[in-house]
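call fold(seq) -> C-alpha cells
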Amino acid sequence: MASPLEKARLDRESMKAKILNSARKLFGEYGYHGTTTRMIATHVGIDISTLYYHWGEKRDLYDSVITDINDEVQDKLLEIEKLISGKPIAKRIEIGIDRICDYLFDNPEISNLILFRYFSKTRDHDYSIETKMPEYISNIAVSLGLSQTKSDITVEAKARVLAVWNAVLNFISGKNVFQPILDIEYKQYIQIVKETLNFILIPAFSKN
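ret:
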C-alpha cells in the first residue's frame, strides 16, 4: 500500500500534495514547534479534520516533509554532479554554485529547516535532515575534487564541504537581513551571492 507521501508525489494536484506543500512552507518559516496543524489547514483552505484524514498527526506530516526534502536535495546534488563531471575545477564550482543557489533560492524552506535543526535547543525528532548530511557531504566532496571516492573522504575535506554548504545556506536564509544591508534588488542579491561564493571558493579550491 502506498504511503501518503508516495500518493502525494504521484499526484501533485491532489489534496495530499497541497497539504504537503503548505506544510513544507510553514515548517520552513516557523519550525516544527512554531507550526500547528491548524495553521497548515488554514493555509490550504481546508478543515483540520481533512488534514488529519490525509496525513494523520503533525509528526507524521513533518517526517514526510523532511523525507521529501532529503530525497529532493539528494537528487539535485546527483544531477549537478553528473553535469560538472570531468570539467576543470573552476568550472565545476561555477556551475555547481549557480545550480544549487537557484534551487535553494527557489525553495528557501530547505535552508531554513536545516538551520532550524542546527540551532534548535529541542532536538526531539530522531529522523531529520541531518541524517542525510553524510551523503550530501560525500557528493559535494567528490564533485569538488576533494576525494576520488565517496567512501574515503578525509576530515579536512568534510570540513571544507561544510564551510561551502553553510555559506550557501546562510546567504539564503539570511536574505531578509542581508539584502537590505546591501541595498539591492532581489535578483541582484542572488547574483551577488553567486559571484561572492565563486570569488572565495574558486581560488581556495584551485590551489594544489
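The first helix runs from residue 4 to 10.
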